[in-house]
Amino acid sequence: xxxxxxxxxLIDAIELTDSQSDMGSDYIRFQTYxxxxxxxxxxxxxxxxxxxxxxxxxxxxxxxxxxxxxxxxFAGFGLIGFAVIFGILSLLLLVSAVVRAVFIKTPLAQQxxxxxxxxxxxxxxxxxxxxxxxxLGIIGLVFYMIELSNLKKIKKKIKNLL
Length: 162
Fold this sequence. Notes:
Layout: H1 4-21, H2 28-40, H3 44-49, H4 59-69, H5 79-86, H6 88-103, H7 111-123, H8 135-161
Helix pairs in contact: 2-4, 5-6, 6-7
């Protein structure tokens, strides 16, 4: 914040947030939330299981496309946006897998893996980071590396017992 360019950016971001929060129900995030909760996910079943990624040639896809044309983008909601499209069940499963991997004990040399997953999870509160295109492959590799580090630890314990 001591760098003039960074400080100016931060001040502009704070002023923009203040001016947008004063808009009340005209604020784009409130409008987006109302659109996805009242027009897209109209019942508990669609919210729990999700409707899937919208395809333009379907009725659901055309409804979402009209919303996107008005500026209602589900990715702007982070994890809530994920739940809107893919369902609460999918969100709970994905987040629980990441949280479990964050808290698995790993050797000191591999603790960066849990820290990385924690970063991705925290940044996903307001961004699309946890379900960005290609990120699930990276998360899968991180899960695999965590598993490998634990297998080495287990093999070492077994070897010491013998």
